[in-house]
Amino acid sequence: MRTIFLALSLATLLFTCSFTIHAQSKDASSAQWISEEQFIPINGLEQWITINGVRSKPVILFLHGGPGSVMSPYSDNLYKELEKDFIIVNWDQRGAGRTFGQQAPDELTPSYLQANPLTVEQMASDGIQVSEYLIKHLGKRKIILFGTSWGSVLGVTMATKRPDLYYAYVGHSQLVTPDDDLSLYNRVYKLAKQNNDQGSLKILDDLGIPPYDKARAVGKLFRVVKKYEKANSTPAPSNWFVEAQSYNNPKDSLNRELGDDYSFVNFVGDKQLGVKSMRATINFLQNSLQFKIPVYFIQGEYDLLTPKEKTTLYFNKLQAPKKEYFLLPTAAHGFNAEVLEAQYSVFKRISGKL
Length: 354
Hints:
This protein is α/β, with parallel strands linked by helices. The chain has helices at 75-79, 97-101, 110-115, 120-138, 150-161, 181-194, 198-207, 215-231, 250-268, 308-317, 337-351, and strands spanning 2-7, 22-23, 33-42, 45-54, 59-63, 87-91, 143-148, 166-172, 295-300, 322-328. The protein has two domains: 2-177 and 237-351, Rossmann fold (3-Layer(aba) Sandwich), CATH 3.40.50; 182-228, no CATH class. The protein contains eleven helices and ten strands. The chain has a ten-stranded mixed beta sheet, sandwiched between helices. A hairpin with a 2-residue loop joins β3 and β4. α6 (181-194) runs antiparallel to α7 (198-207) and α7 (198-207) runs antiparallel to α8 (215-231). The longest helix is centred in the middle third of the chain and has 19 residues, at 120-138. It starts with a strand and ends with a helix.
């Protein structure tokens, strides 16, 4: 086994009407270009997939975070340049974006939430079926798997269950034991005290010590966490998370918003609403330690939600044919320019060995 631990300094979180399949050449002179966006049947549910790039290039399946924070409306802003070297695939997961819109209720009632639970097993099964579809549809042997934040839970699960489908797994802001709100609370409380941040201290004092049994309480904690991550990291360019024109409409916006709420409640759980917590079932320090494919972690120095201490511990325990860890000094939990450069560097490393 070859293990490399790196700290990089590279250059200078996120929706239905009827949609038709869009598949056309971006360059009329290049039949090699593929540009498709459509619903495909995955485990009995029509799910939204976009595919862009040169047909001969390696495929990267992006697993978005949140859960519920789809990347398809923003992919062109972030990954247009990567389409020269890779086929970029975005998938609106079950409960998110346009996929959520296929079965979205008029409102998120407790009865709807209880009748339509999300589970890690179901969503990982969806992801595996998406991967199988891509391999067959695009005529590939395998694909590259990338998961960010919540998507890293699916990424680890998919990669360890079906390594035959993937060249490598790349985890960004890797979740390890996401049910540990106490450590998160203590860390951010200390920061608020150091900064004499009375507003945040009042929120935290009113919340009290975790664990919490309401999703709203976890959401309030996360908002304070994001405040401090933003203050200590380099932000993403302001135009990155502006929706593409085809997604900038009331129906898509409503489905993104409701899907985000629906997915988050399922992720953290809510006793009053009768919703079980997906994150309570996740502990990668006790399982998912054996990988049969190369593993790469991209970690922000100022990430509080998935801190470097936890991802390093998991990285050191997991077994893989090759593993590399990239620590980014200007990044927190989300994306910025340094994260995208690290992604591109890792993807090129992987594709160079194919």
